[in-house]
Amino acid sequence: MNSCSQNSGTAPDDEEQQQSSSSPLKCLSLLKPLDFSRRAEKLPEVYGQWRAEQRASAGRIERQLRTRRALDDLIDAQLARFDAHYNHSPLLLRPRDVARLLDPPWNPPLANAALSWLGDWRPSAILSLARILSSFSPPSSSLSSLSPRAHRTLAEAIRRLKVQEAVLDQQVEEWQVMASVKMASGKGVAEELAKMEEMVARSQKLRYKALELAVKWVLDRNQAAEFLVAFAGVQDLAHRHAERWRARVGPVSVAVQACLPAY
């Protein structure tokens, strides 16, 4: 009886354990092979689609990289042209050449009055153009998103350039007084021409310094490209406007402090 009662007492537990231990096996044996077989059938299709997406994405990245490299090359080439113009062009300083540097005859007088400082842009005006473009460019322009840090850098650089411009302005005024005296006597002409050549060379270096700062250290590649296009466009616009004005009203004279005879 006891053995029967023990058997009768333990039999349900053994049966439950057997059922509980066999139920996962049934799930695994019935579901897992079926699910795996269905997924396995789709693996080639899924893998092929994944490879196609990777190729398309890599192609887009490669095209973008080629575009960026081409843009970098164009920006570097344009900056190299400015470097050659501002830092390596020879200055032929006869007396009349100095007058032409101060008031370039190849530009309409109105264009000279608008832009010219010792023959070209004021360096601070170059950087001011970047700030103006940032303020007035449409939202689609990359220059419209100029960062606060970039604005601060430009403002500080403009301040320093204006100090150096003021020093050059003072030196030019002093030079004009001394040169007018020496030219009248015919003595010390070569010395005065050398002084003016040095001042013009310094102004050219300041111009390139301003351009290089904007293009290489403040603006990103897209912003630098837009800035260089706008920089050339402003010069061209001023020249064309002055030409149209001259054609409509006749020659325009702009007062310039001239101290050298045209010989």
From TrEMBL:
<dbReference type="GO" id="GO:0043565">
    <property type="term" value="F:sequence-specific DNA binding"/>
</dbReference>
<feature type="domain" description="DOG1">
    <location>
        <begin position="40"/>
        <end position="248"/>
    </location>
</feature>
<dbReference type="Pfam" id="PF14144">
    <property type="entry name" value="DOG1"/>
</dbReference>
<dbReference type="InterPro" id="IPR025422">
    <property type="entry name" value="TGA_domain"/>
</dbReference>
<protein>
    <recommendedName>
        <fullName>DOG1 domain-containing protein</fullName>
    </recommendedName>
</protein>
<dbReference type="InterPro" id="IPR051886">
    <property type="entry name" value="Seed_Dev/Stress_Resp_Reg"/>
</dbReference>
<feature type="compositionally biased region" description="Polar residues">
    <location>
        <begin position="1"/>
        <end position="10"/>
    </location>
</feature>
<dbReference type="GO" id="GO:0006351">
    <property type="term" value="P:DNA-templated transcription"/>
</dbReference>
<feature type="region of interest" description="Disordered">
    <location>
        <begin position="1"/>
        <end position="26"/>
    </location>
</feature>
